[in-house]
Amino acid sequence: MSLTRRxxxxxxxxxxxxxxLPVRVALAQGGDKVVRIAMPMDFTKVxxxxxxxxxxxxRDYITMMNQRGGMGGYTIAIDISDHANDQPRAIEAYERxxxxxxxxxxxxxxxxxxxLTPRALEDKINMVxxxxxxxxxxxxxxxxxxxxxxxxxxTQAGLLIEYFKQQDGGSLDGKTIxxxxxxxxxxxxxxxxxxxxxxKEGFKLQAFPYxxxxxxxxxxxxxVRRARPDWTxxxxxxxxxxVALTEAARNGLDMGRxxxxxxxxxxxMDVVGRDQTVGVLKFEPCVSGREPQVIQEILTEVVGxxxxxxxxxxxxxxxxxxxxMLAALMLEGVRRAAEIAPDGPVNGEWLNAGLxxxxxxxxxxxxxxxxxxxxxxxxxxxGRVARWNGEAxxxxxxxxxxxxxxxxxxxxxxxxxxxxxxx
Amino acid sequence: xxxxxxxxxxxxxxxxxLMYALLSAGIVLIYKTSGxxxxxxxxxxMMGAYAVVVLAGGFGLxxxxxxxxxxxxxxxxxxxxxRVALRRMIGQPVIMVIMLxxxxxxxxxxxxxxxxxxxxxxxxxxxxxxxxxxxxxLLNRAILIGGGVSLGLILLSILxxxxxxxxxxxxxxxxxxxxxxxxxxxxxxxAVAWGLxxxxxxxxxxxxxxxxxxxxxxxxxxxxxxxxAILGGLDSIVGVLIAGVIVGLAESLATxxxxxxxxxxxxxxxxxxxxxxxxxxxxxxxxxxxxxxRV
Lengths: 423, 295
Prior knowledge:
The structure holds 2 protein chains of 2 kinds.
Chain A: H1 5-29, E1 34-41, H2 48-67, E2 75-82, H3 87-99, E3 104-105, H4 110-123, E4 126-128, E5 146-147, H5 153-167, E6 176-182, H6 185-188, H7 191-201, E7 204-210, H8 221-226, E8 231-235, H9 239-250, E9 258-260, H10 266-272, E10 281-284, H11 293-303, H12 318-340, H13 348-355, E11 384-388, E12 393-395, H14 404-421
Parallel strand pairs in A: 1-2, 1-3, 3-4, 4-5, 6-7, 6-8, 8-9, 9-10
Antiparallel strand pairs in A: 10-11, 11-12
Chain B: H1 3-34, H2 41-58, H3 63-86, H4 94-116, E1 132-134, E2 137-139, H5 141-160, H6 164-174, H7 176-181, H8 186-212, H9 221-232, H10 237-257, H11 259-262, H12 266-281
Helix pairs in contact in B: 1-5, 1-6, 1-8, 1-9, 1-10, 2-3, 2-4, 2-8, 2-9, 3-8, 5-8, 6-8, 9-10, 9-12, 10-12
Family (chain B): Belongs to the binding-protein-dependent transport system permease family. LivHM subfamily.
Keywords (chain B): Amino-acid transport, Cell membrane, Membrane, Transmembrane, Transmembrane helix, Transport
GO molecular function, one term (chain B): transmembrane transporter activity
């Protein structure tokens, strides 16, 4: 390689950039009171239906808490990037975050979270896997650095079955429950719990898988209708959910007996038609809408001050509030960590201790009382059932958890398998 | 086996097949005039549907103004595409031209949702979700209307190929050099074919968008459209019509009969199997012309 002026300048530029990396790590790990959180998410490919609103809620909440002086004296620095649900890109983003001193990563993607789990466990970097990743990560004894911080899909299915039972006079014996799901590991995930509950409660379970992404389900729903279900659960995301809901309506199913997991939002209702789906039910992990105190505070202190991270009309949507919920839990972990060890050092273990000491946290009434322990990373598995009334999701129940015995049997079965084989 | 269910699946399958066939007709139109299989047809359907959503949602136009405007925009896009990209490829191997259309497919699938938002968007044609019952048989209103409109447009394109301009296109398809020699403006005929094909893609995108919402997944219609075009014969509009019905029926019945046995997922396999079997046993399709070269 010749020593030209161009090569010298290029080399100098690369050296200057490279020299910044250790400085940034030092900033994060040093005594200037910064906690770094990385948010490599899928903004452009599969999870596009949720990421923008979820991340907007997270950023608005973090902006508000930073404006108030941070958590326990620590300012929260966030690094957002797009991994497009692509594992090599996500691993690259994770490694960059690690080198910059991030102590928590939130990838919001099941395949990415699964790919990153061994690294996070080895590097002792906390990874949030809310509504994604491995359901068995609820077992904190096997996954000490992986935090669902929310009811997993087994818990959601178990809670919905309990709701159906309550509505049908305390028994599901002889009833038919149809489960329409995307034909992927995520879509199939609730099946073991549903099968166990079908045996326990005496209902007939009929599963109808559809091909991803679910844009044509015209041959599925006539079969569901003719099965004459007492209840129907649909389990997908994005276009699969809106198509499922549209087909359920077109097949004349009683919307009051059709129910979804967490993946149903106001945006989906806009696609299907707000008045076409009145009565449809969903699992709700936190309060929707703008009424919660914390959302009101965001509107005043962040959005009102012109510092909102996205469109104002998205503030208070279901997915926006999921983002606020998770940001609030992460930052509560920071606050607790700062209480335990005010002077750090800020690293994965420091935040891990904080996350493990979250107790009866409600984010000012946004979420059910949530306690994270070294054993339970789900946070108690509480949620509620909400009904679409044409304008908003209204709660049909109080916060509750159900069938946790069956859920934890599954959790321990799979987590012990991971402990043995790493798979 | 529940016969009413089978009949219902068959009826819906026929109309879904006709909706797929409309997209295939666009592929055939281009193939008939220029001998190229346009693998960007699915992305063009997506682009057309996005155009309607943007014109109706972004500019507040009525749907019945937005759709003709989108058709005009897409016609211009098709013509411009031929002028700017395809015409430069004259003299290049066919495989290079096909690669260009694949590149266009990937480009549009990335850029359009990137600019106009990747979340699913509503495209409301005012079709009620209320089911139509004929005895115990349920007919899906949106699919019924979509299939009916598609059938009408495919029949129109059959008539078009018997009109003066249609005959010019067929002449161009048969022999471009001979067409030039008798004064036919070959480039213009091919450009119009691309424009019309883009309009067919747009109509297909609108009908499917009204059924499923508008997002990138509309571009996946390409696989079904290709299966139909290959089965029917890449140069036969009549073939597309019949193959559309066959593919729609096969997919729908496979979902009802095979899915419960194998645990699901047969719907998309049907299209792939049809492509494979047709290419292996009848490469020119059911109604396509078999090309014989003298050596």
